[in-house]
Amino acid sequence: MANPKSFQFDLPSSGRPKNINLAEEWYPNIQPYAIRASSTRSYDPLLGIRAVVIHATAGLSSLGAVSVIQKGSASFHWLVPDENEDQHGKFVWATCHEARAAWHVRKWGSHPDVWDGKKMVNHYSLGIEIVNSQNKADRFSNWQIEATARIVRYCWAKYPNLVHVVSHAKLDPTRRTDPGIGFPWDKFEKLVLYGTDDAVSALVASAPKPNLAAADGDECCM
Ligand SMILES: [Zn+2]
């Protein structure tokens, strides 16, 4: 099993996707809480973004996850719903304004591999929480992995200086293990780097048109 404390890959300078559409909805009534549970970024909100941090909630529901934002104790930018929730397979929850520094990594959490070990990671990162109990019986669904990769691709397209994709566990190894040993990091990395539907549709769009007249046994067009 891979160790979440080692989970990281860096985005190459080539292959940056263009204009990824993200299926997201604001979590109902969360914005005013999100403003209170976040800070003004100390870097440029667009050019200053260097990292995306991957978390798992260690809980059972989106409702439980957003309660920390409502209490004002922590926050994150997106929440990926669990299999038994209505939104699963449809969209992810937006839970904090991207332009704000959400509170998802503690102040002194850092790693030399992530922007040369700069602390105050929240100020130069975006945080994604995936609803998962982090126990062995609770597998991440394929859609959860794909949706998380999709968010990262959306960020990669949008933030020109984004490089690092890293686990919370790597940034805070003495206190955190998320997203957990059950998170398929290699598969996730491939989905981020090579995409899914958008990569396929780009291939289809660039494929040469078949010459139907020349096809043998052409039944479809008779
Ligand atoms: Zn975390």
CATH class type:
Alpha Beta
Our measurement of the CA-to-CA distance between the termini, rounded to an integer number of angstroms, reads 55 Å
Range of helix content? 25-40%
Structural domains: how many:
1
The helix/strand class is: alpha/beta
CATH superfamily: Peptidoglycan recognition protein-like
Task: Name the strands of the widest sheet in spatial order.
Answer: 1-9-4-8-5-6-2
Instruction: State mean pLDDT (0 to 100 scale).
Output: 90
In percent, how much strand structure appears in the residues?
15-25%
Low-confidence region ranges: 211-222
Number of helices: 6
User: How many strands in all?
Assistant: 9
Radius of gyration: 19 Å
Question: Globular, elongated, flat, extended or rod-shaped: what is the shape?
Answer: globular
CATH-derived topology? Lysozyme-like
How do the helices and strands follow one another from N- to C-terminus?
Answer: EEHEEHEEEEHEHHH
Which architecture does the CATH hierarchy give at level 2? 3-Layer(aba) Sandwich
Can you tell me about this structure?
This protein is an alpha/beta fold and 222 residues long. It has a single domain, classed as Peptidoglycan recognition protein-like (Lysozyme-like), CATH 3.40.80.10. The protein is built from six helices and nine strands, in the order ββαββαββββαβααα. The protein has helices at 31-36, 62-71, 142-158, 168-171, 185-194, 197-206; strands at 8-10, 24-26, 38-40, 51-56, 78-80, 92-94, 100-102, 125-130, 164-167. The strands form two sheets. It has a seven-stranded mixed sheet with strand order 1-9-4-8-5-6-2, with helices on both faces. The chain has a two-stranded antiparallel ribbon with strand order 3-7. The longest helix is centred in the C-terminal third of the chain and has 17 residues, at 142-158. The radius of gyration is 19 Å and the shape is globular. The N and C termini lie far apart (55 Å). Bound molecules: zinc ion.
